[in-house]
């Protein structure tokens, strides 16, 4: 399957992991949360065997397949992964600029230390020197031929030849070459076949002018003439001596200096005690022939050792048709294969840094070392061992030489036919096809922990040719998808220049795979953005983004690539702006037609991120974005189902806000009207305020960052509003003109309660007389004095609004015109909301936002009974007119949140002597961002959505959709357990409850147990107290597994505990009485608990309500969390979307005191009220309310409410505080069909088993009663099983095990007791 099709089929499922019999298909529309969404496909295992008593429909209802809060954003990792800087880039590329060829042959005169055999090798550069006369002519011809052979590898270099030179000739040659090459590398090739072996000191020989003496040339002199960088080739006997001499020379120099080692590379023909081969099988300069004409000598050497020697005339090898650089010819094919083989050998045997230095840094060096591998193979057959510096490991027996031999044999076998019939077509080798197949096999079975694929260099070579390019790109894409380690390997082998060049191709079928490959590369190394812009690669991706035939997932990748290109790179921003990237992105954000398929969330997410990065800190792009009405297209995305899309839209809007620095040098005034800017900014801020209470921390974090940017640009006006926070609570609404509007909007109404608690915690705050309206400009604020808290008893000072001068009046800082005061009031309230967020990270961001307007966090030591958490106004105010100019105000840095401390907020102005700012206009109100120029901006909180989103593309995207077999197996075991025990519960006759507990747990809670919960598949009970301490206990082993605090405000209390995803890796949902919801993972492992998500679930209070008193229930079938309390509605939170999807009017003047969601019907919900009434809702129906009745005669609140066991959607059990338990079937009648007077008042808890026909009620009068669904009392529990038979405490909570007849009871004391029915053991 082509990678494009693969991406379509698999990336479309990337947002969710689809597991067989494990998860429903997501439905994004809130109105369609019905039974079709909750349908279950029972596996064959579940539908057979011991479950015959349960029908398929029953098992489907009892085993919800919904799985929530398991996406990448929920892995509870706050910190981003630390990415190491990539190592694949070469430190610098080198080029060989000059080649010096020194030929010491002295033809017809043999050196005195050489005894030649007969017949003897004579060929030099494939020329017989004795075939020409005079010998000088042969020498010149050989020198010219060697120059031509080198030019094939480096045609643009300068070549200089010295034939039988003197020492002075060599000196002049070397100096001339260094002068020509400048800082480039110089190649020095020495042929010493006509002189003696090098001396033991490593001296080579040259001649005197009359050729009567051999003159030694020390390598130190040679090195001083050529300097570095240089590469030396020594083709002579005992050449290792020269290499050793160079090594000693450089080692001595490097030990005496602190500079970098010299860049000197040496290639030598043989070892110390070896002489060059003299067999006629080889040319005399076999080493040089291997380095300069590898194909010719390799084929001749192979042909003599194969059966082909009987059929092929060796002279044909010298006439192989084609050119080396034309891969469609026989010679080009052989050279291509040879390059691939030698690269592969080097890649697999050399350290990576050495491979890059020798095979990727310099084209000539790479060619010489490829050929050097061949020289080692051939010369070892002649009892010679070529030497190199740096030293290479032996490669002559590498198995890739077998592949070369096979390819050579196939090509050579065609030679006779090609010469006999010139029209015969050359048949290419199957080498690359077979190697790609081998690479594909590795991809099917390889991994990071196995040996890397040895074919990776071959894939690079294949990309150079069109015939295998598409398949190679597909396989390369699969390899890169395996992780950053794979991308690093591919880039290290040299893939990067090739994929850069491929962007110039217009081939349609390559586009999608190239986009995918570039996605993986840029996810690994952002620095490639510079090369892309330099080569105009951004145009390629913009065209792809705007193409009509690309799939949304592929366009998302193109948007990601473009986002990386513009990320923090001004030239990239300018280039993409010029190429109309804004118009292209906004065009895709246009509202789709009803008949169009829904937009892909990943695509929307990256369109927003791309836009945000494009105009981040880039005024021209911001102006163009506003002129193109970008905000109108982005704001609708704030209500999208996927939190990632909402967060990305907030990011894009936030970076579009004016942060107060005019880097455009007047562009703003010239091109964009300030009034228009105010209107647009007003619209954007209002839309951002609507998502302050979004259910996803990912979104709220971006809102906090956006508000910080806004606050930085408008801090004078926001400070004026914030300065009124210390007024008494009765005047709070007067101080905030938009308070009533903000309250009624239902967006962040909880702010008022937070605000109240904060201001009430400020005993030292004093009323301040102030003008009725808040000044809307800096000038007005400066002229409106008011009385403030004194610095000392006799000091009179002005308010903060009268002394704010934060602008640095040097022409750099641009202060935007103010918005409406109502917006500022709402922004301040929103900042307070964020500062008290259930998520610690968001709360920290919120406090940083408040610090921008001069309100800082304070941290006070915690007392066990001190619930102090408030805004404190410091008494330190400074009068600008008293003349104390040496003193300026500075806000202390934000302190990090600590679990053992109580966190508050205060307005603080500390005194600090700063003589270097004498007379500075900055003197006045504390400001943590005081400074000059752009350094202030660095203190603003930074967005994380972009970097976090980039991590998505670093992970495998093409993996199969099949889930981990282990996870599926665990799920099936739990389903089997569940259905087996459900059947037992439904068909068992329970005669009574044993009043002797099977386990007693002293929780050590000082305030008693508030709520308890039994784990369905492990012997675990979870309990919590009023101070929101949570403890997890194993009741079989009687051991405490874990204990932790839900959060740092112990005065709230926990409303309910629930298990989310109980059939999978369950999460612990903890709902606080203040409406905060926190969901934990790994809660049963000591110290390992992690917060998955947290949010405030209630928005809007009834008039006059003192507290929220939240009540919640979780419905796994629908993925809904139902929340209500002192509110006029019941809120439906979709935890998959992390969004409030519906608000159901309660249609009652009383508050909701109990909620119960049906666990078998995903749309059913029952609510009990403070007046004793009960209402049944169906969230699928337009009217929502199905039935309303008042089963309890006395006006007492409903304490407990639950659906009865079974599949009937309208059978309910309700218990009131008066002590009566009512049984209703609302499908038939609104009246009760059974009443149990369980207690005479003081009923505090009701427990209804999910599947067994049994209920339990608890009383403050220290007893528990157990009944059947027919009203029969099955037991009563009054006493602990101790020697003194002490009575149980007032019952606070009751919870049944979902699949066992096992009851957990918590009391006002610290004990939690577990009871079971007669003759039953606890589940194991």
TrEMBL record:
Comp. bias regions, Low complexity: 788-800
Region described as Disordered: 753-800
Family statement: Belongs to the WD repeat RAPTOR family.
Any single GO CC term annotated in Swiss-Prot or TrEMBL for this entry: cytoplasm
SMART domains: Raptor_N (SM01302), WD40 (SM00320)
Biased composition (Polar residues): 753-765, 774-786
Residue ranges of domain Raptor N-terminal CASPase-like in the record: 93-247
Pfam families for this protein: Raptor_N, WD40
Annotated GO MF terms: protein-macromolecule adaptor activity
Official protein name in the record: WD40 repeat
Keywords, in A-Z order: Repeat, WD repeat
UniProt superkingdom: Eukaryota
GO BP field: cellular response to amino acid stimulus; cellular response to starvation; maintenance of shoot apical meristem identity; positive regulation of cell growth; regulation of autophagy; TOR signaling
